[in-house]
Design a protein that fits this description.
alpha/beta, 14 helices, six-stranded parallel beta sheet, about 15% strand
Length: about 325
C-alpha cells in the first residue's frame, strides 16, 4: 500500500492533478476494485465512469458496484461509433449493469429484443466526435486533382489480425490473409501503400505486407495521410474509416460481411463509397469504377453516426455527471 501511494503521488505530481481531487486516495480505491471481488464499504463511490463493457475487467467492476447498491450510477462511454452496429452479442454486454450509455452520433433507442436481455434499462446519451467535427470542417474541401488511376496513390487500411482465434464477427487470420492475397493481386499494377492497425497484436500482417508493399509509418489517420493519398481502400468500418469519410477523398469499400451494421448505416456507407461485395472481387476492373465527386462530398453517414447537435463528448459527460 505504501509503495502504491508513493507511485500515485508521483503520478499526481507529474500530471499536475488539482489537490482537491485527492488523486492518491481515489487511485487506491480504483485498484481495490480490481483486487477485490466485492468492493468493501469504505469504497464510497457514487458514480462510475467506465470505458466499453465489452472489456471484461470493466464489466466485472460495473457488476460488483451495481450488485452492491443500486444507488451507484454507472456511465458507459462507448468505444468508437457504436450505433453503427446491429449485433446483440456486443449490445447486451455494453448495456447491462449501466445507467447511461454515451456514444457518438444521433441517439439510437435500445431495441425491445435487446431490452429483454437486460437487467437495467440504460438511457442512451448522444454526443459529437471532436476529431470528426474538425476533419469535416477543415478537410472536406480538399483540392482533388483528376488523375489517371495508374498515377493515383492508393492507401489500403487493414484491420488488425486477431491472433487469438476466430471471433464471432471476424474472419480468422488465415482467412483474412487469404483475402489479402486476392485483394492485393487486383492492385499489383497500382501505387499501393498499406496502413496497419496502430495497436497490432502481432507482426504477422506487417511481415506479410512488407514483402511487396510500402508500409505507411504514420500510426493514425491524420492531415498528412489525407494530403498524401488520392484514394482510400477499406474492408472494415473503423474509426479510421469515419475519419476518411469526413473528408472529400474517394473511398473504395469492400464488404466482407464480417460484422452486421444497421440497414441505415449500410445504406449511407453505400452512398458515400464505391461499394463492392467481396464475392465480386474476381470480376473487379479498377479502371471501370467511376469516382463521382458527389459521393466524396456525401456527409450523411458522418452526420448520422459521428455528430450530434455540436455537443462535445467531454461537455456532454460533464453535464451528465452534474445531473446524476
Amino acid at each position: 500500500k505504501k509503495n502504491l501511494l508513493n507511485l500515485f503521488n508521483d503520478i499526481e505530481t507529474r500530471l499536475k492533478f488539482p489537490t482537491k481531487l485527492n488523486g492518491k486516495k481515489n487511485l487506491l480505491k480504483f485498484i481495490k476494485l480490481y483486487t477485490s471481488r466485492y468492493p468493501s464499504k469504505e469504497n464510497n463511490i457514487d458514480i462510475l465512469v467506465t470505458g466499453s463493457l465489452i472489456n471484461t475487467n470493466n464489466r466485472i467492476i460495473a457488476y460488483n458496484l451495481k450488485n452492491k447498491t443500486t444507488q451507484i450510477k454507472v456511465i458507459n462511454i462507448a468505444h468508437g461509433h457504436n450505433w453503427i452496429w446491429d449485433e446483440a452479442y456486443n449490445e447486451v454486454p455494453e448495456y447491462e449493469y449501466v445507467d447511461y450509455y454515451l456514444s457518438y452520433g444521433k441517439p439510437r433507442p435500445i431495441s425491445l429484443k435487446i431490452k429483454k436481455n437486460l437487467i437495467y434499462a440504460p438511457k442512451v446519451v448522444a454526443s459529437s466526435c471532436d476529431i470528426i467535427k474538425n476533419i469535416k470542417e477543415n478537410y472536406s474541401n480538399l483540392n482533388i486533382k483528376e488523375k489517371n488511376f495508374i498515377n493515383s496513390k492508393f492507401l489500403y487500411v487493414s484491420r488488425e489480425y486477431q491472433i487469438n482465434g476466430v471471433l464471432p464477427h471476424m474472419f480468422s487470420d488465415k482467412v483474412y490473409n487469404l483475402w489479402h492475397k486476392i485483394l492485393l493481386e487486383k492492385f499489383k499494377k497500382y501505387d499501393l501503400t498499406i496502413k496497419l492497425h496502430p495497436k497490432a497484436k502481432t507482426s504477422i500482417d506487417k511481415e506479410f505486407f512488407a514483402k511487396k508493399y510500402k508500409i505507411e509509418n504514420e500510426p493514425y489517420i491524420n492531415e498528412k495521410i489525407f494530403k498524401k493519398y488520392d484514394i482510400f481502400i477499406f474492408d472494415t468500418i473503423t474509426s479510421a474509416f469515419t475519419k476518411v469519410a469526413a473528408t472529400n477523398k474517394p473511398i473504395i469499400f469492400f464488404n466482407l460481411n464480417e460484422r452486421k451494421c444497421t440497414k441505415k448505416a449500410l445504406k449511407l456507407i453505400k452512398k458515400r463509397t464505391i461499394f463492392i461485395e467481396m464475392k465480386d472481387i474476381n470480376n473487379l476492373k479498377i479502371l471501370e469504377k467511376n469516382f463521382k465527386f458527389r459521393k466524396n462530398l456525401n456527409n450523411e453517414f458522418i452526420n448520422m453516426f459521428s455528430l450530434y447537435k455540436e455537443e462535445k463528448r467531454q461537455d456532454t459527460l460533464t453535464n451528465l455527471i452534474d445531473k446524476v
